[in-house]
Amino acid sequence: MFTTLGNIFKVEDLRRRILFTLLLLVVFRIGSYIPVPNTDASALQEYLKTQGGGVFGLINTFSGNSLHNFSIFAMGIMPYITASIIVQLLTMDVIPAFARWAKEGETGRRKIAQVTRYFTIALGIIQSIGLSIGFGRAAKAFIIGEGFWTYASISLTLTAGTAFLMWLGEQITDKGIGNGISIIIFAGIAAGIPGVGSQVWTTFFAGKADMTMGILKLAGILLVVLVVIVGIIYIQQGVRKITINYTKRVVGRKMYGGQSTHIPFKVNAAGVIPVIFAVSLLMFPPTIARFWEGNAIANWVIQHFDYTSSTLGMILYVLLILGFTYFYTFVQMNPIQLSDQLKKNGGFIPGVRPGKATTSYLTRIMNRLTLTGALFLAAVAILPVIFIKLAGLPTSVQIGGTSLLIVIGVVLEVMKTIEAQLVKRHYKGFMSSK
């Protein structure tokens, strides 16, 4: 391990990328403590104590405690993720121009990215207005000097903070290590770990003469966490290899093809993206509903879209995870495109005819693997919530499954990126084979 860490800093490009990523994460953490003007964060904190965890707990966790501080990054990166979902759905032949851009390669991706940025700003404005008005009504003395321009400045500040985070994520992706958006969410979750540990200590041990029950509960939680971590790693690394043979062909005086290779189909090809998408989409309706807090329908949405306490919220959360896992997997690996590429290059699966038969075969394999991965993601996201509730922990730490999944998924992704860079330069990596 220490040899590998030493090797990382021997590679100049890799060292520069890692230091650049760390520098931007420091900027993110500093921004988490810069307050929004015309607000009193202490008044908001008093209000949030009465709300427990829920939607606000999720936003606070993913934003690195920025919501409780009501800093310029209080909304986190969630508007960008919601915008990405909308744009990706629109590329599925809903809007012809978007579908055309999706097939144009790098040029099309740049156009889609630009539209996603515009959607992010629009959603950021909507969500920031909802948060400022909702908190202004619910938390007494939260807004200092109420008025149109006060709310406008708060909304613009929050939207600018989200836009800046979006820019940070793109810079990390381009010049740093791994997916920038995922790493920013990872940093936010990691920043909240000490607070979760403090809450666990307060709940189980603080002021109690007999600590036996607390020790047993803590041991049970740690055992569940360990099992979840092992399960996540096992599923994330699981691969089904489809054997591909290539026919021999003569071009001029040279013979091409004839070799055998494989296509790796991951059990969970979508990674942690479906969970992030599901959480982001589930948080959007309650945020909008806070425009009309006090109305019966708005209160129902706020109450029942909270998956940490509502049965309906849990069901919606699971269904969204299942749906996004299938959607994202088939967007990444389209069986029809794979089949066409194999046919054009003279490749075939042994025992399966090229063309429609190959497409059907690949679709069947992907459906089975994706179902396994989707059910696993849903279980990891929901079961810890149920278990922690049984253990009697406060609602603010009931996001352990989702957080654990994202943290481990991002760490594995970054490790693979570093591993590939080290192996390419003939250095020993993290996962060296014996």
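Second entry:
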Amino acid sequence: MTVSPRVPRQGEKIAPFPALLGGPASPVRSAGNGAADHDEAAEPRRPRAPRAEAVNAAEASRPDRPCVTELRLSAFGVHRGAGFPLGPLTLLCGPSGSGKSSALRAYEALARLGGGAELGEVFPDAADCVPERARPDAQRRRGFRIGCTADGPEGPVRLDVAVQAEPRLRIVGERLTAGGRTLLESALRDPARRAVQAAWHTAGSSLVTRAPLPDDRLGTALLPLRVAGRTDGQRQVLAAAEQMVVALRSVFVCDPLPRAMRADAQLGAGRLLRGCGNLAEVLWRTRSECGRRHGLLVDAVRAGCAGPVYDVLAEPGADGTGAGGTVRALLDRGDGLRTPLGRLGNGELRYLALALVLLTGPGVLEVDPAGEVPAALQTLTVLVDGFDRDLDARQREGLVRLAARMCERGHIRLVGAVSDASWAAGVGGVTVVDLAP
């Protein structure tokens, strides 16, 4: 399935910075001075109750595990008012400069913010994310806006974040919505303070609760620490925030670097790093942990590497000890010959590393999932820039078919960037988002 990102219609205006978070009227609104205030006149009319059949169908279609189903870049890099639908397996395609890498970067940034990271850690070069033609306002401010939708048991939940990159990096607006109701909204009220004024839905004796939140962290990720959960409204806020955070947090950014994978690896925690330079260490650990998954890996490697492959294994490295030292990975050719990974081509190494990623999980990959949520209720999302880099046609097709099989099971999702996705047209379950101008 090939889709195009949602872009502004002809004549549609994109709100300039700092007109940050526009949208329909809601119980919480931004006052003229930037504060979040309640406006009873802005309370939307209660919609007519849907028919029971429609409600049951909608509930049946909701995923059991929270997952991100749309990425929105209102003003980020080359993107203006774009929305990218994300399926279980999504390929972003387009020529160089079309914004594939920046879309993945925005997804990773939201994931890190959802995990509680500070804004400065996530955007050390925030000015580079501002659209090139964006002009500063009267206060010399420039910034960008990113957002996403997370679907799950609570239905679609939307998160939109406005970031000021200049003159000072800070979050100046945030909105969390679900079911047509604004559950959290924040706005910058006093530029001299390192805080934003926030208001969240309460539906108790007070319709909203107001309090300051830091301007360098995502407010949605802080809600479990600030909301008591005593009223139905508060519980709705907590459920929506939890769904968004769980959907965002379990992300593994992967870009296998063949030159790093050729060297022996130091034994350590046995968790695969984003560059896959410690692939040998991970194979040393996983080969004996799950024979079935290792067998699937061997089958995949056999289909993507030249020559016979009997096994994929690791052995003590040059120091000859293994314990506390180094290990190296090899392909067992089945006739007494073992080929070190250093002899493999770049495509073979990237293929092997990505196959291992697809066949493992958070316990093996260097990710920080929500520890308070059972693993069965979480989905790991893998982000791969240059998904088809260095791969030949056979490796490319074999890898995307393996990804489609693994993503169909629901425990893993993948968003990859490719220059051309015509080769994936015949593979079921692939969503292709064409970014070509």
